[in-house]
């Protein structure tokens, strides 16, 4: 991101009753994941300690302790990357001298509270504006691993995705393979900063599709021609700077239906990522909601999987996903409207099946309304001589081999 009781017996009885109540509540409301389905990713382009020795990154630690179920990533950036080689990885003669130990201490403090730390690597040379060679970027990744323990992944900044070239596609695919395979790091994130060519989705684990001093509209989050809606939201990130007032919790939760990670800050250009937003705790609190997993499948009359029929997922009339089945959607615990293709070739929709039948509406309608519960939904299709319902027929047939389910 270019610019961060009284007796033991009574006690046992009460505990037993409490557990029973929890179990009944859980069964009646459906299972949901403990972790929120959308989290924070903060570009943390500031030193961990101030000149007086105080811990500047402390708000991240405090926030993660307060909201442990919200995923929290921090992208650390000592010197437009990891800096030099050990032992003086981060050296600033004009300020604090060798800051390597400070950065390691800061990273350790974040990691110990559950914040996941990524190392920053720019794939563009700031001076020339030219893409760095593969070997240059690999060297910086190696430096991150050599300099700092507890770094769990890399953020590749300035992803070059427009115009599309097969060379750039291979470049980022190979870097992600190196990060995961050779360096054994868990995460490879990328930052084109805008919507991208479809072929780049999956070259990194998640990519930043919006970086701006405004708030993203649904059209930006959905992508050109609703491109992003064909993929799980775990593929996408957005960040907004220059936001003096945090958006409402309702706005944040609606936006979370589109992306896996987000971030807002009140800091502005030219360096919006060199400070910690005053409302960090509040933006994290807005995401502190239980999640559910919707596993949606299509099958033929005999139960054989049918790959390709498209489902649409909406909430409050907003289209959130339009993707071929099978499709998994890890999302916030809300009520959703799901519509299956009425026609898919000679296959015609017959009925819905769910492991929570009391949680869905009319089973025989292609459109159902589901109550908030994790569940497996199966659209059953029957073979007919012809099926030509223009209103519901899928506008195109997806190749499931080209469809990537995101990580959850």
Q: What's the helix count?
A: 8
What is the helix content? Answer: 10-25%
Specify the overall morphology: globular
* Count of all domains: 2
Output mean pLDDT: 87
Distance between the termini: 23 Å
Give the uncertain stretches in residue-range form.
4-33, 390-408
The main sheet comes to: 8 strands, parallel, barrel
The succession of helices and strands, N to C, reads HEHEEEHEHEHEEHEHEHEEEEEEEEE
Look at the structure and name the CATH superfamily of the largest domain.
Answer: Aldolase class I
Q: What is the C-level CATH assignment of the largest domain?
A: Alpha Beta
Percent of residues in β-strands: 25-35%
CATH topology name of the largest domain, in short, is TIM Barrel
Number of strands: 19
Strand order of the largest sheet: 1-2-5-6-7-8-9-10
Structural class: alpha/beta
Question: C-alpha Rg, in Å?
Answer: 24 Å
CATH architecture of the largest domain: Alpha-Beta Barrel
Please give a structural write-up:
This protein is α/β, with parallel strands linked by helices and 408 residues long. The protein folds into two domains: 35-289, Aldolase class I (TIM Barrel); 292-402, Immunoglobulin-like (Sandwich), CATH 2.60.40.10. The chain has eight helices and 19 strands. An eight-stranded parallel barrel has the order 1-2-5-6-7-8-9-10, surrounded by four helices. A five-stranded mixed β-sheet has the order 14-11-19-17-16, with no helix packed on it. Strands 13-12-15-18 form a four-stranded antiparallel β-sheet, with no helix packed on it. A hairpin with a 2-residue loop joins strand 16 (343-344) and strand 17. Helix 4 (134-147) packs parallel to helix 5 (166-182). The protein is globular, with a radius of gyration of 24 Å.
């Amino acid at each position: 991101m270019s610019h961060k009781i009284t007796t033991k017996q009574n006690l046992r009885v009460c505990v037993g009753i409490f557990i029973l109540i929890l179990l009944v509540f859980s069964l009646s409301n459906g299972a949901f994941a403990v972790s929120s389905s959308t989290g924070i990713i903060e570009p943390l382009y500031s030193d961990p300690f101030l000149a007086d020795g105080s811990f500047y990154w402390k708000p991240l630690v405090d926030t993660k302790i307060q909201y442990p179920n919200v995923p929290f990533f921090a992208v650390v950036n000592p010197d437009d990357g990891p800096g030099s080689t050990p032992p003086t990885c981060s050296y600033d003669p004009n300020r604090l001298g060798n800051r390597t130990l400070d950065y390691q201490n800061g990273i350790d403090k974040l990691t110990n509270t559950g914040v996941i730390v990524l190392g920053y690597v720019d794939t563009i040379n700031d001076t020339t504006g030219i893409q760095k060679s593969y070997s240059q970027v690999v060297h910086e990744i190696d430096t991150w691993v050599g300099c700092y323990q507890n770094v769990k992944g890399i953020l590749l900044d300035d992803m070059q995705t427009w115009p599309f070239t097969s060379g750039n596609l291979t470049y980022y695919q190979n870097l992600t393979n190196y990060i995961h395979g050779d360096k054994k790091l868990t995460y490879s994130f990328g930052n084109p900063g805008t919507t991208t060519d479809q072929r780049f989705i999956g070259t990194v684990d998640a990519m930043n599709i919006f970086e701006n001093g405004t708030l993203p509209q649904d059209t930006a989050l959905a992508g050109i021609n609703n491109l992003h809606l064909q993929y799980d939201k775990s593929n996408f990130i957005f960040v907004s700077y220059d936001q003096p007032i945090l958006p409402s919790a309702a706005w944040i939760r609606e936006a979370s239906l589109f992306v896996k990670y987000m971030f807002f800050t009140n800091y502005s250009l030219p360096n919006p990522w060199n400070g910690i937003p005053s409302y960090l705790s509040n933006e994290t609190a807005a995401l502190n909601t239980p999640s559910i997993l919707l596993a949606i499948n299509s099958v033929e009359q005999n139960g054989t999987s049918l790959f390709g029929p498209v489902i649409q997922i909406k909430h409050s009339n907003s289209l959130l996903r339009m993707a071929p089945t099978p499709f998994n959607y890890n999302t916030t615990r809300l009520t959703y409207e799901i519509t299956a293709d009425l026609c898919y070739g000679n296959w015609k929709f017959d009925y819905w099946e769910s492991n929570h039948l009391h949680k869905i509406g009319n089973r025989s309608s292609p459109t159902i309304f589901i109550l908030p519960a994790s569940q497996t939904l199966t659209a059953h299709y029957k073979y007919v001589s012809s099926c030509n319902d223009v209103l519901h027929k899928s506008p195109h047939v997806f190749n499931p081999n080209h469809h990537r389910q995101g990580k959850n």
